Amino acid sequence: MKTRPYVELTGVSKSFSPGHPVLENISLAFRRGEIHAVVGENGAGKSTLLNILFGMHQPDTGGILLEGRQVIHKSPADAIANRIGMVHQHFKLVASFTVAENLRLCAPPPIRKMLRRDADIARIAESYGLPVDPSAVVSTLPLSLQQRVEILKALINKAELILFDEPTTILNPAEIGSFYAVCRQIAAQGRAVVVVTHHLEEVLANATQVSVIRRGRLIGSTPVGKRTRSDLVRDIVGRDIDLTSPIARAAGHSGQIELRMDCVDVAPTESSSGLRDASLILHAGEIVGVAGVEGNGQRELFEVLAGLRKPNSGTLEARMVHPDGRVAAGLVPEDRHHEGLVLDLPISLNLLLNRFGKPPFTRHGRLIHSEIAVAAEDLRARADVRTRSVNITPRTLSGGNQQKIVLARALNDEAPVVIAYQPTRGLDVAASQEVLTRLRHAANRGKAVVIISSNLDEIMRISDRIVVLFSGQIAGDVPASTSREVIGELMTLGARTGTDRP
Amino acid sequence: MVFDAVTLGLFVASAVRLAAPILLASLGELVSERAGVLNIGLEGIMLLGAFGAVLGLQWSAIPLVGVLAGAVWGVAAAGVLAAAVAILRADQIVTGIGFNILALGTTSLLRELLLDPAFQLPSLRGISMLRVPYLSEIPVLGRALFSQSPILYAGAAVAVLLWLAIRYTRAGLVIRAVGEGAGAADAAGLSVVAVRFAAMLFTGLLAGVAGAYLTLVASGGIFVDSITAGRGYLAIAVVIFARWNPLLVLIASVLFGCADALQYQGQAIGLAVSPPLLLMSPFVMALLAWVLLGKSNAAPGEIGVPFLRGRK
Amino acid sequence: MTSISTRQETSASHTSGFRSALGAVAGSNAVLVLTAFGSSIAIGLAILLFLGVDPLGALSVMFDGAFGSKRAIADTLVFMTPRLLTALAALVALRCGFFNLGAEGQLQLGAIGAILPATLLPPSLGYLLLPLSILCGALFGAIWGLIPAVLKLWRGADEIIVTLMMNFIGIYLVKHLVQGPLQPPDSDFNMSAKIPDGAALPILLSGTRLHAGVVLALVLAAAVWFVLYHTPYGVRLRAVGLSPRAARLQGMPLARLTVGAMLISGGIAGIGGAVEVLGVQYRLIDGFSSHFGFDGLAIALLGSLEPFGAVVVAIYFGAINSGTLALQSTLSIPAALAQIMASLPIIFLACAHGYRFLKGRPLWSSTR
Questions:
Q1: Neighbour-count burial of A239, counting CB atoms closer than 10 A to its CB (0-12 exposed, 13-18 middle, 19+ buried)
Q2: What is the pLDDT of residues B163-188, one digit of tens each?
Q3: Is the C or the N end of chain B the one with fewer CB within 10 Å?
Q4: What DSSP state is assigned to residue A41?
Q5: What are A273-284's pLDDT values in tens digits?
Q6: Hey, are the CB atoms on A353 and C239 less than 8 Å from each other?
Q7: Which phi-psi region, left, alpha or beta, contains residue A31 (left: φ > 0; alpha: ψ -120 to 50)?
Q8: Which residues 167-186 of B have a C-beta within 8 angstroms of C?
Q9: Where are the extended beta strands (E) located within A217-346?
Q10: pTM of the full predicted structure?
């Protein structure tokens, strides 16, 4: 017989704009001792669910039961008082404070007394099996340690239910292992753990209960024991879909070298390892996937390739460059809203953001609006951007449609190189599939494509060649047929003896 | 350049006396800024406090009531501003600028309506001079430093207390957290809105008293339009120059008080610098401090940014 | 270069949020703006009622004082001019993501720049003095605008503080000049010598104060509009203001655009100071600007950062000033009413926008 749940959601619905429910009538129970995974596509409503539990948002209908009693969480303070802790995807720590100050800040009065001295904090952290240096300034800590501070915050507040929002995206495989060990320990102490994630392997390996949410509705909540990857995928997406087989490709590349990066160094920062002696060659017609855990130099690699950052040493050569020396490349940046699009300029200008200053769009220093409108409409139709007009801003479009604009611009460029950084982040399965297909077609037509992504599935499906970034170094340069295990190992441990550099 | 001890004493006394309103307003502004609010409306709050003080004085004929009225007006003015900025998340800078113009118009209008230009002033000695026993007997500097307004002593005490509070108390930790990482403070169960509101009310209290000092102590109970003459903005400069540290605010205020005093007494001590250039110097120094020292750790990380829950 | 850009992001996000917010509302929510103005006028009338004046009578006096005659219209336009110019200055900078709070200082420097050639060059230059003085004013303003841009790009110094401080440096610089170096030897007043006729802006309508600077301001408003919407430079400027990272990714030179925008911005504010000296005061006077620079920022924002929006709002500001002057002379109502009625709309609108931001309307939630 199951025990009474610690926390229950009863018929929770929530919408942020009328007619677009994010959650619909969700009833879900979280029990002590369980590691409860909540899975679903991007935008399915998983994070909103956690935010409602933690009092960041209030449900439109339905409510929260705490050990059977109705509670209302108007703010995180209420949730904390009800022994609920949350570890956000973007940590909620005061970066300029020390670990001790952060812990003292969140502790309720009776516990605060026990945290007066740093030594006491160190001892308490130790007792939870989560040792940290209380005097360290948070911004100087690696993300895995910052996460540990977040967990400590919850434990010090005597949380009985701890919510994790995408806890493993910033961790490498080894750190992921120890993260779930901590979860198991927490659950074994009789607490309830909720993990929102989209990594199904982790769910199958570590969770005890799994709930699937699709488009705001609960599809099911079952013990993990009986589930398989494929039936979870079917529940998540709503149909059978093959997310592992490679995308069709043309045979072989021409061998023309489009871009050559040699021994590039970029100084490390607090949140990233920078680049060390990284080299990369890119041929026309091939897709090179750059795999690795976030923070291992991906951003620096993108910025160096895109010409946004001068490496401290090393060289970058390309067959075609802009007059200012940047590599001529179509760019698909990581952050669609802030780097890919200018959300408050019309779609037409966004589509032509890389060429509006040239003829025929500008003549004698003057914009020719008619030319812009015609070209933009043509691009829009070819890229299948669903919008009622190219004269409105892309703000209200769906993520998938926004990404189509970014992609259309990047691929429309005469530039022979395309650099994509996390091109499917935040998109649902159908939209992701379309992005990957378009990148593949570009390569088949002779463009040289780099895809930098922390999504290994995606890298393995689309790449002709996989380069693994670990701690700023190229830890491996392997064919796409390489097994998942080998690549995973490269991502965790870096170069193995065979490919090791001096 | 020749000057004697008496002149020096007079100069220091005048510098310190002129430093008091800047000190109080700066300390108030410091608390707002530490909580993440760039309170440009300080000038307006001071002005309303200055007006309120004279109104209170004319109503009661008791100087202390005037000071209290200045404080109350300051808090009320800050409350209005805080409602816009902290609760409604109105843009801090734009609202502050609008508020200052509003305060200018309001006080000018109310002065014509409510203040009696022929009012018989009571003696203001009680609030403008308190001779500290023994200390004020010290030759030269004793007289200059220890026969000043009790409001000034209170200001100096507030500076020290604030320094201690920000460093060592829970309230200090909370204010710093709200200014450095509002999202983190919110997730820790603190109310960002309440903390910022309270910080702005505290600013209003000190700025109101600063305004009261301007009218009651520095200009003998008379209110004239825009009597603050940019001192609210000067206080913002002081906070920056002093790197958000209350003790440095104390020193910087006196320094800038010297600049103020020099315009009256520069010639007496043999310095012939153009008064406007002296008055300009605090702004130049704040600018240099801001540019040369950079936006180091001292500046609150989220200054000027309205808080929105759930923002990444 | 990268360090520059990250710094730029943080403070540019500050402006772009407000900007996009205002921009987004401009079309759909003219209602909001009208409400802000309407309620400010209503409060003004309530004050009049409280003062024991018939509000409708007062309103008609105000309206007459602002638009009732050739002279009244001329006064309104003359009051509008410096405010429109500082508004355009604020607008250009804000559209490029630079929170230029320094139009006041740039205006002061522009006045200094205009008075120097006007009074120091030989009057025999005749009408050559006028363009020289205006250009010199623009140049001084542009330099004053360049400094915060350079400090931001070079040191990462947040422009809000820098421009705020530089306002007061400019104001005291004018004070210093009119009390010393520029004060005629035989004068005790805090003002410079009168400019020669050749340097004065011509009066367009005899018997009124309507000077040619009014036309200059309106032409500049049209020019700013043309540049923003009909040239690639304008698109780049807007793109940088709205999304510096996206602009940089497309190879737009952030530093150059910022410097350019601030040169234009400071230059226009400088012309504002020059026009005030050459068209209204005919000399440099301490305190010639009654916070024109701050009014300008408010006008730019109230006009949704659109040049023609700024023209309309600046006319409102001008009318409030000429109207309350009429109130003062006929009904002896304090002119301070003008400050109240000019400041309330900006506070109301800022609150309304803040509230929308708080309610997380999708239009803005992602920017600021």
A1: exposed
A2: 999 999 999 999 999 999 999 999 88
A3: N
A4: -
A5: 889 999 999 999
A6: yes
A7: beta
A8: none
A9: 217-223, 257-266, 275-283, 287-291, 313-318, 329-332
A10: 0.87
